[in-house]
Automatic annotation (TrEMBL):
Pfam family, one: Citrate_synt
Gene Ontology process terms (BP): carbohydrate metabolic process; tricarboxylic acid cycle
Source superkingdom: Eukaryota
SUPFAM superfamilies on file: Citrate synthase
Identification of the protein by name: Citrate synthase
UniProt-recorded Gene Ontology molecular function terms: acyltransferase activity, acyl groups converted into alkyl on transfer
Pathway recorded for this protein: Carbohydrate metabolism; tricarboxylic acid cycle; isocitrate from oxaloacetate: step 1/2
Oligomeric and partner information: Homodimer.
Organism field: Toxocara canis
């Protein structure tokens, strides 16, 4: 959960700086080859588990095609999507040459005015925490427990101990979100001092 979407944006800005607004797929291919042969990677491509295009990327792409088809950065992401996988396959070092969610998320956030890149990871963390928290609320309301797939015991069989854990867990989640926000503010302040 690093700053991968931010790295993708920096990468895209570098391409735009080098190629300008008017570029062909061939220009992009040549630029990518030069980039790869210099020992660098293409951020936003590859995934530790998936061996196909990340479904979250596909959802974001579908959204962008509908709502921001004329955005310059989206056009560049789209051009990369058409060019990069073949180059990465030919290059031979990538286990997964397909785009992941980070290839698109930063562009969408920028388009809708979220320009503070140091907060992107915070948004990711908060969304995860809220998802867990809502699940805990449902589980508490339905009197079921959060459990691993291999566990067979029900909520009531574990008794008071599990009840206490379920009551305390939202506070741990809230504390985790708060810590993430504090870290992001610290990073943002440090980046401001360095600039």
């Amino acid at each position: 959960m690093g700053r991968n979407d931010s790295k993708v944006l920096v990468f895209l800005w570098k391409i735009k700086k080098d190629l300008g607004h008017e570029y062909t797929h061939n220009d992009l291919r040549n630029w990518l080859w030069k980039h790869l042969l210099s020992g660098q990677v293409v951020p936003g491509y590859g995934h530790a588990v998936l061996r196909k295009t990340d479904p979250r990327y596909e959802c974001q792409r579908e959204f962008a095609l509908k709502h921001l088809p004329d955005d310059e950065m989206f056009k560049l992401v789209e051009a990369l999507y058409k060019v990069a996988p073949d180059i990465l396959i030919e290059h031979g070092k990538a286990k997964n040459p397909w785009p992941n969610v980070d290839a698109h998320s930063g562009v969408l956030l920028q388009h809708y005015g979220m320009t503070e890149m140091s907060f992107y990871t915070v948004l990711f963390g908060v969304s995860r925490a809220l998802g867990c928290l809502s699940q805990l609320i449902w589980d508490r309301g339905l009197e079921v427990m959060v459990r691993r797939f291999e566990q067979k015991l029900g909520y009531r069989k574990l008794g008071r101990c599990m009840s206490s854990i379920v009551q305390i867990t939202p506070y741990f989640l809230a504390a985790g979100v708060l810590c993430t926000l504090v870290e992001a503010v610290k990073l943002n302040c440090e980046e401001g001092r360095q600039a």
